[in-house]
Amino acid sequence: MSNIEILEQALRLRPDERIAVVDGLLKSLDVPDEDLDRVWAEEALRRLTAYRAGGVKAVPMEEVFGVE
């Protein structure tokens, strides 16, 4: 069965059934990557340590997003 056929069949489902299919598909793509999580955790700790040591200046959210 092709992806077009699958889509055509999915579009015949009731809205709540389509939501369940979409939710299942999205969850199947959201697989944690332990290596990537470790790298980001190390980077976050490095940045926090630098901030606490005074090596990094914090920038207010308003300045970052241009909100006044």
Determine Rg (CA atoms, Å).
22 Å
Averaging pLDDT over every residue, what do you get?
Answer: 94
Which bin fits the share of residues in helices? 55-70%
User: How many DSSP E strands?
Assistant: 0
> How many domain units?
2
Textual characterization of the structure:
The chain has 68 residues and is an all-alpha fold. 69% of the residues lie in helices and 0% in strands. The protein is elongated, with a radius of gyration of 22 Å. The protein starts with a helix and ends with a helix.
Brief summary of the model shown:
With 68 residues, this protein is an all-alpha fold.
Provide tags for this entry.
68 residues, mainly alpha, 2 domains, 69% helix, 0% strand, elongated
Map the helices and strands:
Elements: H1 3-10, H2 15-29, H3 34-52, H4 61-65
